[in-house]
Amino acid sequence: MKEKKMTIFSSGLIWFGAAVSIAEILTGTLIAPLGLGKGLAAIILGHVIGCILLYLAALIGANTEKSAMDTVKGSFGKKGSVLFSVLNIIQLVGWTAVMIIGGARAAGAILNEPLGIEGVSLWCILIGILILIWIFIGIKNISKINIVAMSALFLCTIILSGVVFRGEPMAAEMGLSFGLAVELSAAMPLSWLPLISDYVKAAEKPKTAASVSTIVYFITSCWMYTIGLGAAIFTGQSDIAQIMLQAGLGLLGVIIIIFSTVTTTFLDVYSAGVSFVSITDKVKDRWVAMIVCVTGTLLAIFTPIEQYENFLYFIGSVFAPMTAILITDYFILKKDHSSKVVDIKNLALWAAGFIIYRLFMSIDTPLGSTLPVMAIISILCIIVNGGRKNAYTNS
């Protein structure tokens, strides 16, 4: 039986849903100290940097038709990639918990009092159950339900945008450098680097899906950041629930919150399953995804896991140098290290990149940390791995 593939339209819907999230809106509020003009410039520049890298990572998956963590074996070896699979699973469990608690708190702030509910546990459980339903339906069978969910989210976010940008903007209060704002804007696309190939490879036309997915994500993510930026500047609020209450959205706001949380977090738990399968295929990815969903839900209920600004920077420091090496090996050096057990040189380069990234965070550059660090690691990779042996194949 021929394997069912996703249409290009379905691929676009998935990445629209990935970008429409509370986390993206809240990250946009962090850029408000720059003011509207500089804030928008930082959002666009950061997304250009992040999404170019996202596209290149997607294109590797499209060309090889491998999952994201399987493509990493091309630079770090069969067992060397395990480190990144484990780190990816950990960050995805963390994202699952962050997204669930963020959605639960926002929904609770709007409806707890009218419904006579206390706390956020019930909202966490509801969101967790909806994510499990998405997992059960499966990535290749979710197109119809996604059309309905994404149409509703599209209309809701247009209404939210109209409400947010009414009134007069408040004066900017400096406290954030332009470079750090660019880095915050690049961080979200970077967080999807170790995931995007999982979905591109499942498309009917992987290369077209890589382009469409990146473009849709770029436009929608910039839009979400801008909503957050505008909310903080025009309403003085950084709490999404308060923004929606001020806007009088009520139940409509809860719909935005819950479904945006589900559609984004589904990708996290699904890719955690795919990453686990890249380590061992003895467990089905769907079961791992369900375990990650339940674990993330429990973490959301029982642990304080809401502060994620430093989490974003950590993701950048792990996956930016990893992707720099992967892109350099694949597109420039044309080298495939997947026949090795572990590629020590590339692991050492990655460790150097991790340290350099952390050092660059204390240096204010107009391009943030990601681009300079990746350029340095790419140059070092060319110097260390120069030559054209072990060429890549599409097998």
UniProtKB/TrEMBL annotation:
Question: Do the record's keywords include Transmembrane?
Answer: yes
Q: Which Gene3D superfamilies match?
A: Hydantoin permease
Gene Ontology CC entries for this record: plasma membrane
Keyword Transmembrane helix attributed: yes
Molecular function terms from GO: cytosine transmembrane transporter activity
Q: Which family does it belong to?
A: Belongs to the purine-cytosine permease (2.A.39) family.
Primary location group: membrane
The listed locations are: Membrane
What gene name is given for the protein in this entry? cytX
Return the PANTHER family for the record. Answer: CYTOSINE PERMEASE (PTHR30569:SF0), CYTOSINE TRANSPORTER CODB (PTHR30569)
Q: How does it sit in the membrane?
A: Multi-pass membrane protein
Q: Where are the transmembrane segments?
A: 39-61, 82-108, 120-139, 146-165, 177-196, 208-234, 240-267, 287-305, 311-332, 344-361, 367-387
One Pfam family name is: Transp_cyt_pur
Q: Output this protein's name.
A: Putative hydroxymethylpyrimidine transporter CytX
NCBIfam families with a match to the protein in the record: thia_cytX (TIGR02358)
Q: Where is the signal peptide?
A: none
Superkingdom per UniProt: Bacteria
Q: Which UniProt keywords are listed?
A: Membrane, Transmembrane, Transmembrane helix
